[in-house]
Amino acid sequence: RPRSHTVTTTSSSFTANLSASSSTLAYDREFLRTLPGILMVTEIVLGFMVWTLIAGTEYFLYPAFGWVMFVAVFYWVLTVFFLIIYMTMTYTRIPQVPWTTVGLCFNGSAFILYLIAAIVDVSSITQRAESHNYNSWAASSFFAFVVTSCYAGNTYFSFISWQSRTLQ
């Protein structure tokens, strides 16, 4: 004998909100016109220069340049990630994350570790007759200090933003 089944489905407000909010991605063009946005793009371009200048040499023979490579590549990837988050306004879709604190910690740590890496980079340069890597290492140290100053600027702006959020 045929049986009759009744199936009832319900949807939670979380899934309804998730599907409604993820249907369109916002794009914030104005972010690139702000000083933090300009600094972030500069960090990406010059950070790329730092690690490609070192990667094109025999850096693996000198452990100090391995540290510089780690810092440069690590923060380059994270900066690209944060640029995508800011450009797509993903931070507005995840309000549980304290984005001002995350930005301050990210930029502050990038400033400190890049400063250390830039100092290690410049102090590890050797000008030997057989070293054909001198120019690349010298250029990478210059760009490392410029990137460090960019992260210092973004740390300042992140601190101002964090401070205004904590005072509310």
Automatic annotation (TrEMBL):
Organism: Centropus unirufus
Location of the MARVEL domain: 31-163
MF-aspect GO terms: structural constituent of myelin sheath
Top-rank taxon, per record: Eukaryota
Gene Ontology biological process: myelination
Subcellular location: Membrane
GO terms for cellular component: membrane
Primary location group: membrane
Membrane topology designation: Multi-pass membrane protein
Protein name per its UniProtKB record: CKLF8 protein
Keywords: Membrane, Transmembrane, Transmembrane helix
Gene responsible for this protein: Cmtm8
